[in-house]
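Tutorial, part two.
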Amino acid sequence: MTQGKPAWIRSVYRPQAAAEVRALMARQSLHTVCDEANCPNLGACYGRQTATFMILGNLCTRDCRFCNVAHGAPAPPDPEEPRRLAETARTLRLRHVVVTSVTRDDLADGGASQFAATVCALRAADPDMTVELLVPDFGGRTRDLDIVLAAQPDVLNHNLETVRDMYAAVRPGADYARSLALLAHAKRRRPGVRTKSGLMVGLGETERQMAGAMDDLRAVGCDILTVGQYLRPSDRHLAVRTYVSPAQFERYRLMAEGKGFGHVVSGPLVRSSYRAEEALRGWEASP
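Running the prediction step on this input gives:
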């Protein structure tokens, strides 16, 4: 049974800064996962003049039971989107840019070429930017992932999201082994890329199951791990089974570090792209 939100689930909101970033995105006809996924960190990120860009529209061809992004039939890719995104990143003076997308099972390459074009546009706008891509699973097609990897992102992120035993209930359109295979292929194809993944907690998973997911991620060479609390976006989404305590998040951090992850961020409001630059720098500073 779900209890009320505990005191440690708090987020910061700066209305003026949020309005400024929203206005900029609207002028450039861009989407952010911050808004579309109703992220609890939106106010904090927009307040620091940063955001996670979401390419390929705001309608997803999948309908995961935890995600607030709208499901529907998306429009064709916009060839000018990468240029506008790069201009916006430069306007915001971002040093580290995180780009994700809706899942586009309707496209022959799953949107891989749009990811690659976006990386190229960002490199042209500022060669010193680091670029992190949070990609879908491309239906398991390694040829599509290779298109993304050829653009040479600094970080290749793909979220496992939940433990193996809960995949059918939480991610009915995805596959646990397929997600692990994507991360494994990324390391084989481009050993120098930093790989990253995220896990949600609070859906009824056990600590033993979480340890198993961490082991599976380390087995495919995953470098960076984030662990955060699942928060229910609406009544039609999966219910929160429990609010995990800060002490348990610290336990998960120590557990993951003990398994060999180069950098771990674990906490109630942690999300895969939240403070992503700090996670990358933390990994670079690790022994």
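The chain has eleven helices and ten strands. In part three we will examine how such features are distributed along the chain.
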